[in-house]
Design goal:
Elements lengths: L1 H30 L11 E8 L10 E4 L2 E12 L3 E9 L11 E7 L4 E7 L13 E6 L3 H31 L2 H8 L2 H22 L3 H7 L2 H22 L3 H7 L2 H22 L3 H7 L2 H21 L3 H8 L1 H37 L11
Parallel strand pairs: 1-7, 2-6, 5-7
Antiparallel strand pairs: 1-4, 2-3, 3-4, 5-6
Helix pairs in contact: 2-3, 11-12
């Protein structure tokens, strides 16, 4: 009896174990349907820096080109980057990723489930290695779209209100623009101006004045063309020739000489302003001015004395008798000078004759 109960209990336990194993297998099949092989695949970890994960959870799928290649293993906060998402990636998918790859957090379906889409990056970039970090971004959420749309709608509404107010003012005839639309004066003025301009152009066309010649006569254009051609010829000769103008344009000798002259002038100016030479003293020393001032005062005093008849010069100017005696003395002096000139001339002639005929004047005899 006891053995039968024990055997029955053992049978129930075995049935329970079988049922539990079946349920566990069913649960695994439901959760990992189609991914049984991926449970045992080799994986590598990479990290993505994302400012806001927008509700991304651990275990969320990771896709490349629409194919699931891994899952989100861990998410933790970072003080600088916001969040760091650790991705467990299939080792077979790693060669498709580059250093400049990006991770985007997108929404799957209408329920709002999040997943990670990996952008492979540029072909010329180096390949991504296990443990590397890439940049991440978040898809714009519906609330962000609604917020932007709300601002856009507010802007459109404000614009419509402004247009409505403008149309109201135009209909009421207020403002310059309304007058442009409703007042025919501007149109009449434009029409009159156009008519006057047309008549002026017709008169110019028919006349033989300067303006008509400028418009119709091609001689001015021909002269301008000839002047341009002449300038081109001069420029060509300047480039090809060896004349003075070409040397002035290309030869640096004149420039160097001008630079040396400028340097010399600068040195001369510096010498004038810095050293104690005569020119600097003439410019800055007041002694010359004082001497000239004293000399002019002394000369003025002498002239004043002469004007008053003081001294020999004053006596000569004021006393007629003295002036007459002085003139007579000067006359006698002139006559004496003439006699001295005649005597000197005779003496000169005598010397000349002695040189030419010494025997006339000197006779030598030894015995």
């Amino acid at each position: 009896m006891f053995d039968a109960k024990k055997e029955l209990r053992w049978s129930k336990i075995k049935v329970g174990l079988v049922i539990s194993a079946g349920l566990l297998a069913l649960l695994v099949a439901v959760l990992f349907a189609g991914n049984i092989q991926s449970l045992f695949a080799k994986r590598v970890e990479i990290k993505a820096l994302v400012r806001d994960v927008s509700g991304l959870k651990r275990g969320a799928p990771v896709w490349i080109y629409g194919t699931e290649v891994g899952f989100v293993k861990k998410i933790h906060l970072h003080p600088e980057y916001g969040t760091v998402v650790t991705i467990a990636l299939s080792q077979e998918a790693l060669p498709f990723l580059k250093k400049d790859s990006q991770a985007s957090i997108l929404t799957m379906g209408l329920l709002g489930d999040k997943y990670v889409e990996l952008n492979p990056g540029s072909p010329q970039a180096p390949p991504l290695q296990p443990g590397d970090t890439i940049r991440g971004s978040t898809q714009m959420e519906l609330r962000d779209v609604m917020e932007i749309s709300s601002k856009a709608i507010d802007g459109v509404t404000e614009f419509i209100q402004k247009v409505d107010r403008l149309v109201t003012k135009i209909e009421a005839g207020e403002g310059t623009f309304a007058k442009f639309l409703t007042d025919p004066t501007l149109y009449n003025h434009l029409e009159a101006t156009t008519r006057s301009l047309s008549m002026t152009m017709e008169a110019v066309r028919k006349s033989r004045g300067t303006l008509s010649k400028l418009i119709q006569d091609p001689s001015l254009y021909d002269k301008a063309l000839a002047a341009v051609s002449s300038m081109e010829e001069v420029t060509r000769k300047l480039k090809e020739g060896e004349g003075t103008l070409k040397k002035l344009v290309e030869d640096p000798t004149l420039y160097n000489r001008l630079v040396r002259v400028a340097s010399g002038l600068e040195e001369f100016t510096r010498t004038l302003t810095e050293k104690e030479g005569t020119v600097r003293k003439l410019l800055e020393d007041p002694a010359l001015y004082e001497n000239l001032k004293k000399g002019s005062e002394h000369l003025l005093s002498i002239l004043s004395s002469v004007d008053k008849g003081q001294g020999v010069a004053g006596t000569l100017l004021r006393d007629d008798g003295t002036a007459m005696e002085l003139r007579e003395a000067i006359g006698r002096l002139k006559e004496l000078t003439k006699e001295m000139d005649a005597l000197a001339l005779e003496f000169k002639n005598l010397l000349k004759d002695i040189k030419e005929h010494p025997k006339r004047y000197f006779k030598f005899s030894i015995f």
